[in-house]
TrEMBL record:
Keyword line: 4Fe-4S, Electron transport, Iron, Iron-sulfur, Metal-binding, Repeat, Transport
Pfam families: Fer4_7
An annotated GO cellular component: cytoplasm
Protein name according to UniProt: YfhL family 4Fe-4S dicluster ferredoxin
GO molecular function terms noted in the UniProt entry: 4 iron, 4 sulfur cluster binding; metal ion binding
InterPro entries assigned to the protein according to its UniProt record, in alphabetical order: 4Fe4S_Fe-S-bd, 4Fe4S_Fe_S_CS, PSI_iron-sulfur_center, YfhL-like
Top-rank lineage group of the source organism: Bacteria
C-alpha cells in the first residue's frame, strides 16, 4: 500500500529528497505522498526511506485508503521507471 504522512509531520524536509519515486511534495501545511507514485521503495530499497529518515515516530504510516499488494507495488515501480 502507499504510505501517508500524518499531521504529526514537522516539515523537517528529510523525507522529500530521499524518495526515489518523487512521490513526496510539500502540501499546503505538511508534506504529502502521491499514492500513484509511492511503491514503499519496492524496486529501490528494502524498506521505505521516508520512514527511516523521519525523526518523529509514527508520522509516516500505511495509507488505509490505498491498500496494494507487494506485486502491485512492484508493477507500479516498473511502470514508473521503465
Amino acid at each position: 500500500m502507499a504510505l501517508l504522512i500524518t499531521a504529526r509531520c514537522i516539515n523537517c524536509d528529510m523525507c522529500e529528497p530521499e524518495c526515489p519515486n518523487q512521490a513526496i511534495t510539500l502540501g499546503a501545511e505538511i508534506y504529502q505522498i502521491d499514492a500513484s507514485r509511492c511503491t514503499e521503495c519496492i524496486g529501490h530499497y528494502d524498506a521505505p526511506t521516508c520512514q527511516s529518515v523521519c525523526p518523529i515516530d509514527n508520522t509516516i504510516i500505511p495509507d488505509p485508503q490505498h491498500i496494494e499488494s507487494r506485486d502491485a507495488l512492484w508493477e507500479k515501480f516498473v511502470v514508473l521507471h521503465h
